[in-house]
Amino acid sequence: xNALTDDMEVFFLPSWVIILLAVxxxxxxxxxxxxxxxxxxxxxxxxxxxxxxxxxxxVEIMKEGICGFDLNAxxxxxxxxxxxxxxxGNALGDVMISDPDMIKEILxxxxxxxxxxxxxxxxxxxxxxxxxxxxxxDYWKQMRNTLTPTFTSGKLRHMQTMISKCAQTLVDNLKKKxxxxxxxxxxxxxxxxxxxxxxxxxxxxxxxxxxxxxxFVVNAxxxxxxxxxxxxxxxxxxxxxxxxxxxxILPYVPGVKSYVGPIKYFSKTTENLLQDRRLTNDGQYKxxxxxxxxxxxxxxxxxxxxxxxxEKLKKRVLTTEEIAANGMGFFAAGFSTTKDTLGYIAYLLAxxxxxxERLVQEIDDVLQDADPTHDNVSKLTYLEQVxxxxxxxxxxxxxxxxxxxxxxxxxGLFIPKGTAVAIPTFAIHLHPEYYPEPEKFDPDRxxxxxxxxxxxxxYLPFGMGPRSxxxxxxxxxxxxxxxxxxxxxxxxxTCEETQIPMVLSKSRxxxxxxxxxxxxxxxxx
Length: 525
Ligand code: HEM
What we know:
Layout: H1 2-11, H2 15-38, H3 40-44, H4 58-77, E1 80-82, E2 95-97, H5 100-109, H6 137-147, H7 153-180, E3 184-185, H8 187-202, H9 215-224, H10 231-238, H11 240-245, H12 257-280, H13 288-298, H14 305-309, H15 311-315, H16 320-351, H17 353-367, H18 374-377, H19 381-393, E4 400-403, E5 408-410, E6 413-415, E7 420-423, H20 425-429, H21 448-452, H22 472-489, E8 490-494, E9 517-522
Parallel strand pairs: 2-7
Antiparallel strand pairs: 1-2, 3-9, 4-7, 5-6, 8-9
Helix pairs in contact: 7-8, 7-22, 8-9, 8-16, 9-12, 12-16, 16-19, 17-19
Bound molecules: protoporphyrin IX containing FE (HEM).
């Protein structure tokens, strides 16, 4: 009997060890179950890259960058595939769709089902949570209705003088560089874009080229240089819920404070400007802030009693917080997008002198030394082709995304409510089926004849449908006016520091690995 007991003790461990082992086994089983449950390949019956337990595709993304990851995924698994984000819920999207007919269905035909972006509305840093980009459902529809009239051709025509002045400052500066042979990097486009956005959105003249230490310039630069190679920043970027949770301490966290600080700075500045306008409004301003403020005023003092009863009008009111959010939102959505696109266009022109020559010829023929304006730049068709082809190769909005607000079926694929759909713009733009020799810069891909032969849903730099970029016309006007003005005077050239071919960064989405350096030469007139 004793011998038997001794033998059993060899096999039986102390009870605390047994409990620990049981907990470990149960945890493992639970994690395996989660891994199984979270694997969207099984859920949707679609092919896709194998996710890591808990971490989904995060390691591949850190290695290849989001652009590289999307490109490889589409090449390996085709036009409709499943993604799994593990612990991060659906941050990377549940399904990724690059089939043009399905994209049309999602962005346009079923736009009412796919209204929202895949951002958790209440989980973003204040006040951006109330900006058009982030808001959801009916709230978004009403806000978009209110803001759409601020971007009409008529309103933009009012802004052309401000834009022209900013373009002239840039040209004067570039002329000096041409005379001294000084090289410049793409930050110069940031100065122009900054001046335009400050003037058109806030009515503030910054002249960032000559005032590089202006707080607007310093904060914009910080905001524009988010380092997604920093795992903390990447986590906050992919899981905005954590941002909300830790918002009070974020300004003190190294690496993250450079992202949060500028948001706070711009929202405070917008609020202060609004305050001043309310006190001294004499109708002199024609900027977005004023246009939003007018919509705001309409709801209160200028409304008749009947109007005050109208639910629709009441809902169109923008609160001070919403105006501040959208002032900051226009800045966030319109600054680095336009700046980076201009940087890529200048690089492509410098590295393709025959395209630049043809463009200069068009500008000379059509404008005949006239100053670029809202109306005459619309006649520069080759310029539009050059911009379009540049945005095909370097779409700064690398992906579009939508959430399904209800169960639906898209071209035979059942998409349950809550599914996050990712549309990989960058990978679509480099798809050889739509764009043969996709890496080649060829603006003739956007001639009217070539465009007519292509499915329009293979080109998405500004998105598509009711939730597409509200600032598209402003961005195009801003880019056309400055490029026409620069090329009336100067020619872009490469220099020793120009990286050819350009390599894209893996840690900063759609940014060059090395800064783009160029020089300019004055045209012999
Ligand atoms: C070259 C410059 C620009 C590019 C490439 C660009 C690209 C985009 C893209 C891809 C989207 C998402 C569209 C979608 O989901 O279907 C977007 C949305 C948006 N953009 Fe732009 N954008 C640019 C300039 C601007 C400017 C100058 C402004 C404002 C002043 C602006 C304001 C916005 C806003 C507010 C949204 C959100 C619209 C909504 O949710 O209703 N963008 N942009």
